[in-house]
Specification:
Shape: globular
Subunit structure: Homotetramer.
Cofactor: Mg(2+)
Keywords: ATP-binding, Lyase, NAD, NADP, Nucleotide-binding
CATH architecture: 3-Layer(aba) Sandwich
EC number: 4.2.1.136
Pfam families: Carb_kinase (PF01256)
Number of strands: 10
Number of domains: 1
Helix content: 40-55%
Strand content: 5-15%
């Protein structure tokens, strides 16, 4: 088993992100964020803003139909798509239009604001052969998803326990081992979130980031992390590099906010705003 890499500033300098040059927004890629219920549409907004703060060029966000108007105003940088609401039984071709949009994007984030995959949305999108960050309720669809080298799973300890059928205490006792087990089982990169976050590939490569601080444990923080990773994927970073850089940006943003605002009490919406200046320092 290879040694665990320390994901710090020195690692980032040694693994620079792809430089899009002067190619404009098309050269920095398109991200599609697929969210969930009306009452959680803000989670998709947090993720979408983070993707843009990470340098993605174009953004689309798909949320419940009832939230489209409000989100279109709150997030004018994005094209906001409506998720169909045609009752409890999925109709034939229910997700066809969204799958077509997903097929034309460079990175897809599925899960912010999605409580579960009862309607089959995440399962349908995981059939699309694209780089996909899978978070929150969408993680439940991984059991039936085809393997793809561009997948990145971002579970916390509770979600990882459900993914692997383990007690949460076992995951918390050895999160790296849990991350490696999930990476091997699903053939995907895994971001095992926690006070120390691990990034793991199916071949055993692993990294560890131990910064950030407790303030990052706040509602919406995981949505921001998923958006940062998706934005970096869209820019052309590989799965391990996108995940590692996303975790680093997220953590370093937390450290900056803690020193300026306080150890606790800053908001998830403030995290992504720190990313551009952190990126500029490398």
């Amino acid at each position: 088993m290879s040694a665990v890499e320390t994901l710090d500033a020195a690692w980032m300098r040694g693994h620079p992100l792809p430089d899009p040059g002067d190619t404009g927004k098309d050269g920095r890629g398109r991200v599609l964020v697929v969210g969930g219920q009306v009452e959680l549409a803000g989670a998709a907004m947090l993720a979408g803003v983070a993707a843009l703060r990470a340098g993605a060029g174009k953004l689309q966000v798909a949320v419940a139909e009832g939230a489209v108007a409000a989100l279109s105003v709150a997030l004018p940088e994005a094209r906001v798509l409506a998720l169909p609401q045609d009752g409890p039984e999925p109709s034939p071709g229910r997700w066809t239009h969204l799958a077509e949009q997903a097929g034309g994007c460079d990175a897809l984030l599925v899960g912010p604001g999605m409580m579960d995959d009862a309607a089959g949305l995440a399962a349908a999108l995981l059939q699309v052969p694209r780089d996909i960050v899978v978070d929150a309720g969408a993680l439940r669809a991984m059991a039936s998803a085809p393997r793809h080298p561009g997948r990145i799973l971002t579970p916390n300890a509770g979600e990882m326990a459900r993914l692997l059928g383990l007690d949460r205490s076992r995951v918390e006792a050895d999160p790296l081992a849990a991350g490696r087990q999930a990476a091997e089982r699903f053939g995907a990169a895994v971001v095992m979130k926690g006070a120390t976050t691990h990034v793991v590939l199916p071949d055993g490569r692993a990294g560890r980031y131990a910064g950030g601080g407790p303030g990052l444990g706040v509602s919406g923080s995981g949505d921001v992390l998923g958006g940062l990773i998706a934005g970096l994927l869209a820019r052309g970073a590989g799965p391990f590099e996108a995940a590692a850089w996303g975790v680093f940006l997220h953590g370093e943003a937390g450290s900056r906010l803690a020193s300026r605002i306080g150890k606790l009490g800053y908001l998830a919406r403030e995290i992504a705003d720190e990313a551009p200046s952190i990126l500029t320092s490398f």
